[in-house]
Automatic annotation (TrEMBL):
Source organism of this protein record: Paenibacillus nanensis
Cross-referenced Pfam families: Beta-lactamase
Protein name in UniProt: Class A beta-lactamase-related serine hydrolase
Residue ranges constituting the Beta-lactamase-related domain according to the UniProt record: 64-345
InterPro entries: Beta-lactam-related, Beta-lactam/transpept-like, Diverse_Enzym_Activities
GO MF, any single term: hydrolase activity
Domain of life: Bacteria
Amino acid sequence: MTVPQLSADVTAMITRRFDALFEKCSRGKRGGVPRGQAADLQGRIFSRKLGIDYRYAASPAPRPYHIASIGKMFTAVLIGQLLEKASLEWGARIAEYFNSGELNGLFVHKGRDYAGDVTVRHLLSHTSGVADYFGGRVHSGIPFGRLILEQPDRHWAPRELLDFSREQQHAVAPPGTRFHYSDTGYILLGLLVERITGGTFEHDLHRSILDPLGMRDTYMLYRSEPSSGTAEPLAPIWFNGSEISGFRSLSCDWAGGGLVSTTDDLLRFGRALREGKLLQASTLQTMDNAEHRFRPGLHYGLGMMEVRFEQFFFLLRGLPRLKGHIGVLATHLFWDPETDTHIVLNFGSEGAMVQSFKTLIPIVSELRKAAQA
């Protein structure tokens, strides 16, 4: 649809409504955050088409924050860039890049080892069948979420994350037969990037995405530094009722979502992605094809999520399908193709996911009403 730029009066009205929405969230009950404490609620909404450039921060001096699984989009972009350089194919079998010992035990389902059948596409789309070290069930030992809290000073190497799935979990299905969200699969993708480029995953992120886009405040926690200088203290991170922003155990995310960023930097990334500065249109279209259902209202492509609001509640039918990703800490990076609007949110708490979507819905509704007025 054709969307005219909004008048100054309409833009001012939308700004007031956004302010009221975020202020209400900031004052209200925050999921997973103890009484008397706060997370650093932040929001950034930008649409050149509509003429909207809005920002909100509950703190007078908002700090960089952990973006959680939004980082999977960055990993997927690196893979897409390798594909465009003919260094990789969607259907490439990952066993060609790993030795049998590295994949041993990760893809065994009902006594059969499927490691030789797993492709890059399977890993990107969470259909490889591999377990999820971060949130999946364990058949022995302590669940990973507890290890983060009980071993706060532990620095996790990528291969230790694979070992967790190898030793304490089982594969959930043969490749290509079931969607099962898996951080373990994205650790393998990060290692795959390293095998092909010969560098470290974090170096490739800076060289291929962060530095070219001028994302000076974005870096991989405990593995690189922001190009702007010394890393600032992080915004609060609430996980299972504990504030963990200073825990070295956050090194566990790596290629599954170990980045620290800001709303401005994530806006740069989102715009560059949709403006063709990172990937060719055909590559991005393939990644956007959300053919797998993650849960009602959320579908998955290749490193990209799609929000289908009508599956949350039938009266939301007609809202646009957003493309992007969320993170477990109620972080959002989405793009509305109807109004060419980018939406960046940080709630900073794994208990605030429902609240974050209850905030996203009125944001998108306001944008749609304004565009149709």
